[in-house]
Specification:
The protein contains 6 helices and 10 strands; from the N terminus they run βαββαβββααββαββα.
Length: 213
């Protein structure tokens, strides 16, 4: 059995290809109509396609019931194999106005893939840029929790709670003289800038070990 997603069109194979097409069509219609309304039946015969047919029912539920009840049914002495079709019946789709040519589907899929790849590339570039900025600021910055860090006008806070926001950092540091701004390149990582290293040092000393919860 195929793992194709359930739909109302069923794919049949292992049909007796020695039976005339008209007779096979009528037999399939009679067989499936006893379980639900049949919308369309397509039998394609060629050198490479034999013993196959597509039956479209009124709903996916009816198709599922037919597949369950008719799986392995012997039709003209051959056990019929039934599974969900990979695609909706084109003839039915045309009648209902939902038909989309395969080349159009392929073009749409290609555009969708290209768009997803562009978005992924843009996101990766943005993350790389943020990481680069973080490393740069970390080099220049003075870690709040590191008493041995060299003086700098920028404080580096690398272990902020996940729920911490830029506004929370502003509330925490803005009361200190010389505060300029705070930034958060990503959750859990913050930088606070002061007018000079002396102002940053005062804020660092006052907040050393402070837990932001």
């Amino acid at each position: 059995m195929s793992e194709t997603l359930p739909q109302r069109t069923l794919y049949l194979n292992n049909l007796n290809s020695s039976i005339k097409k008209d007779l096979m069509m009528k037999s399939l219609k009679t067989l499936f109509a006893s379980h639900g309304k049949v919308i369309a039946i397509d039998i394609i015969r060629s050198r490479h396609l034999r013993g196959q047919a597509w039956v479209t029912l009124e709903s996916t539920d009816v198709a599922t019931a037919c597949m369950s009840k008719l799986q392995g049914f012997k039709l003209f002495e051959k056990a019929m194999r039934v599974q969900y079709a990979k695609e909706e019946n084109d003839r039915v789709a045309k009648f209902e106005g939902t038909f989309v040519p395969k080349e159009v589907k392929a073009a749409r899929a290609k555009k969708r893939k290209e768009r997803e790849e562009r978005l992924a590339a843009a996101k990766a570039a943005e993350e790389e840029e943020e990481e680069g900025d973080a490393k740069k600021q970390k080099t220049e910055g003075d870690a709040v929790g590191d008493p041995n860090a060299p003086p700098s006008k920028r404080l580096f806070a690398p272990t902020l709670p996940a729920e911490c926001t830029g506004d929370m950092l502003d509330v925490l540091f803005s009361p200190y003289s010389g505060f300029v701004r705070s930034t958060m390149p990503r959750p859990g990582l913050g930088f606070v800038e002061f007018l000079d290293a002396e102002a940053a040092g005062r804020a660092k000393e006052a907040l050393q070990g402070f837990k932001l919860t």
